[in-house]
Task: inverse folding
């Protein structure tokens, strides 16, 4: 074979390979006359599905009870607050019976309640210890997160919280990575009495520097000892480094629903979850307060002033997380790498939030512990804080509530506006008086009524609706024995699938809709093109063999 | 089927009468505050028959189309419309129970539309002779909900395919489309469910199954042999030709 012939054959070989590559069917195709069938929705595996309410043993926690002389009101939801922890938060971890404390994860020195200075029957010197806890953080020992905290089935964004000082294992029990009930979002609500001397000690258990800024709470810029007290590194205060502690001392003169957050790199540290509600209650005799409300939500031991006017009290903490920000702590362990990624690479002005939480959970987990439960003809006190980056437009179905206070300041009666959407700017607080009087204004009657952010991004979880901060105001006649809203199980069950939450299964799975809007079966690649591409590959390869063989023969 | 009780119909009729007398009394400049009650009397107007259940527009049972000397025959078509009829077609929401009808020219066709849904559906035929179906050459049966209505038309003499559809937005696009062929028709329309492909087809993901890979392998092996076979053929021819020896 002459070199020219070889060259021609080689060229032909390359040509057939190239045309095979061009003809090779890939990507998408057209269906012709008949569209592909609908793939039936696969039955979810046991691993994928969780029961809507899994805490059967918590039935005892739901009941009204007295622990160590502390009356604790009934909290008929799937996951009520631990009544032993409520008792410890009222009495102080130093005064509560050791037996009670052992039923919590709290440290003995988490909350010390001191002298009754004004002799009115309650302690007036309160010492609070807060730790900084990372949830869903990474480990150099393997591809896993620790300790884990699910905001919705299978969803574990990296986040930080302030937490009451705890003891022992961070996890629920030895055979899980799941954080114990004290270590959760949001940072706990803190309740103190007007005029109390409150010492808040930040014990920095984290690997980054942090501080506490008491937003809206009466506090001197510098305390009596001359220490900076505003939590702001730019005005003189040194941030608290890992392993250090700092005490903020305040004696708040004004009451109201306030806010607290870390003021070190506030843009990211607040967005990572270092923010919580801070309530200053009226000074009343025998006013033993539930100093912490972990996970916010139902207040099981309200203050004297609230009990006078209201039947129930709920703390509603709205928070948004950015998936990309949270993933920074999950993609490295070296704090220098995390600091660079968070402080210098990450740009909040280019960011969008992905997770919207009410009391630390996204729907449907909000159904477990962020319900508002009511009976007809009741008065409800709702304290709302917007810790999101954007506006919160809080809407209640079936009800119109009245604004009694803005940013902790009681509004004059004439300005206590009644409405059904409350626009709350970031960091603002609104106190609401919600009446369940069936008069067509305050309430349209008993039911399972949704309440949610009406900025629609707020009702999504990583883009999936229904999700986000949706929860329900449910009249107790519509609660199941397990404390879940009495909605048909087939509707609720789908929401508790990890695959559904990961947007892997169709949204409409009920009845005929499953067939109408299910996934389309993939197409078989076009037969003609498959054959043509195959033939060309064969021909090209054969031509190559011929050329090589003629080479070796000519040598 | 929604049947309105007679008593309600009578009440509405009386209300209509009251509204009409009122409107004659009132000043024309006065703003209209009372919405007149719906006219429930069957109403013949511009070849339109309308009532509470729907309407039939442009029916023609008498006038012969041009070129037809007489009515050549009678035909009866019953068309069901609704979501359930789309179940046979993947990715369609609404449909008629049939997608094609064939009729002879100059035939009187009695068309009955049966609406099996609780919403409005239509059967609309286009491009009929304008002198028979003024002003746009359309024939329409519309039903406001479940129920049935009948209208008649006489097919023209020409060999032609007519579009049959529902004009409620997105109903035709989602499957409520069919064709009426007179004298065998003059072709097919696009995107008739189960019959013809779409003009602007959707794109679906393609997945390589085992069968596809097998097909590819078989084709590749076949391809592998082709040049050898060709060379063999070529050699055979050369060896039989006189120039072959010279080259060697």
Result:
């Amino acid at each position: 074979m002459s070199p020219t012939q070889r060259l021609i054959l080689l060229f032909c070989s390359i040509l057939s390979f190239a045309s095979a590559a061009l003809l090779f069917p890939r990507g998408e195709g057209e269906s012709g006359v008949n569209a592909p069938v609908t793939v039936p929705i696969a039955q979810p595996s046991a691993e994928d599905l969780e029961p809507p309410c899994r805490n059967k043993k918590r039935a005892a926690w739901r009941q009204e009870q007295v622990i160590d002389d502390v009356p604790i009101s009934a909290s008929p939801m799937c996951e009520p607050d631990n009544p032993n922890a409520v008792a410890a938060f009222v009495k102080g971890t130093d005064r509560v019976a050791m037996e009670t404390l052992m039923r919590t994860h709290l440290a003995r020195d988490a909350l010390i309640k001191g002298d009754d200075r004004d002799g009115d029957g309650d302690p007036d010197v309160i010492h609070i210890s807060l730790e900084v806890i990372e949830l869903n953080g990474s480990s150099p020992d393997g591809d896993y997160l620790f300790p884990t905290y699910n905001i919705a089935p299978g969803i574990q964004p990296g986040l930080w919280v302030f937490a009451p000082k705890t003891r022992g294992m961070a996890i629920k029990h030895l055979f899980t990575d799941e954080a114990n009930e004290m270590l959760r979002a949001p940072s706990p609500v803190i309740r103190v009495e007007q005029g109390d001397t409150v010492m808040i000690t930040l014990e920095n258990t984290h690997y980054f520097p942090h501080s506490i800024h008491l937003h809206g709470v009466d506090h001197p810029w510098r305390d009596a000892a001359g220490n900076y007290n505003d939590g702001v590194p730019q005005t003189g205060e040194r941030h608290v480094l890992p392993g250090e502690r700092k005490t903020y001392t305040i004696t708040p003169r004004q009451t109201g629903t306030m806010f607290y957050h870390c003021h070190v790199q506030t843009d990211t540290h607040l967005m990572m979850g270092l923010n919580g509600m801070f309530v200053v209650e009226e000074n009343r005799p025998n006013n033993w307060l539930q100093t912490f409300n972990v996970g916010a939500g139902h207040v099981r031991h309200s203050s004297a002033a609230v009990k006078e006017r209201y039947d129930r009290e709920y703390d509603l903490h709205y928070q948004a997380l950015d998936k990309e920000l949270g993933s920074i702590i999950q993609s490295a362990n070296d704090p220098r790498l995390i600091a660079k990624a968070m402080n210098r690479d990450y740009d909040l002005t280019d960011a969008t939030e992905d997770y919207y939480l009410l009391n630390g959970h996204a729907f449907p987990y909000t159904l477990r512990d962020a319900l508002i439960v009511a009976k007809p003809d009741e008065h409800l006190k709702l304290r709302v804080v917007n810790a999101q980056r954007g506006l919160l437009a809080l809407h209640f179905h079936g009800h119109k509530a009245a604004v009694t206070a803005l940013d902790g300041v009681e509004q004059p009666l004439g300005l206590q506006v009644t409405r059904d959407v409350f626009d709350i700017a970031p960091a603002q607080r609104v106190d609401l008086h919600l009446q369940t009087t069936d008069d067509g204004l305050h309430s349209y009657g008993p039911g399972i009524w949704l309440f949610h952010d009406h900025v629609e991004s707020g009702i999504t979880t990583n883009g999936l609706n229904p999700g986000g901060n949706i929860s329900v105001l449910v009249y107790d006649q519509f609660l199941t024995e397990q404390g879940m809203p009495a909605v048909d199980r087939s509707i609720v069950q789908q929401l508790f699938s990890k695959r559904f939450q990961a947007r892997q299964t169709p949204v409409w799975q009920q009845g005929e809709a499953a067939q109408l809007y299910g996934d389309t079966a993939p197409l078989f690649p076009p037969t003609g093109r498959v054959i043509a591409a195959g033939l060309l590959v064969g021909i090209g390869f054969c031509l190559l063999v011929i050329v090589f063989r003629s080479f070796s023969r000519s040598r | 089927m929604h049947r309105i009780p007679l008593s309600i119909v009578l009440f509405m009729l009386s209300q209509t009468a009251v509204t009409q007398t009122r409107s004659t009394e009132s000043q024309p400049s006065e703003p209209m505050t009372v919405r007149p009650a719906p006219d429930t009397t069957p109403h013949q107007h511009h070849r339109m028959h309308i009532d509470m259940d729907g309407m039939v527009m442009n029916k023609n049972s008498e006038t012969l189309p041009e070129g037809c000397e007489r009515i050549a025959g009678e035909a009866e078509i019953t068309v069901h419309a609704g979501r359930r009829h789309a179940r046979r077609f993947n990715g369609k929401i609404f449909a008629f129970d049939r997608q094609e009808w064939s009729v002879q020219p100059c035939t009187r066709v009695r068309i009955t539309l049966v609406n099996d849904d609780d919403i409005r559906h239509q059967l609309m035929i286009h491009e009929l002779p304008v002198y028979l179906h003024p002003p746009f050459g359309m024939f329409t049966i519309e039903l406001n909900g479940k129920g049935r209505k009948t209208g008649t038309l006489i097919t023209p003499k020409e060999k032609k395919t007519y579009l049959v559809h529902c004009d409620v937005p997105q109903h035709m696009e989602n499957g409520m489309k069919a064709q009426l062929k007179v004298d065998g028709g003059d072709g097919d329309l696009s995107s008739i469910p189960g019959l013809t492909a779409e003009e602007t087809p959707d794109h679906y993901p393609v997945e390589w199954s085992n069968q596809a890979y097998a097909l590819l392998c078989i084709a590749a092996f076949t391809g592998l042999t082709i040049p050898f076979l060709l060379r063999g053929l070529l050699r055979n021819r050369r060896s039989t030709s006189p120039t072959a020896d010279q080259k060697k």
Q: What stands out?
A: Residues 1-36, 244-248 of chain B have pLDDT under 50 and may be disordered. Residues 108 and 201 of chain B are 36 Å apart (CA to CA). Chain B touches chain A at residues 87, 89-93, 194-197, 201-209, 211-212, 215-228, 231 (CB under 8 Å). Helices of chain B lie at 6-25, 210-240, 243-247.
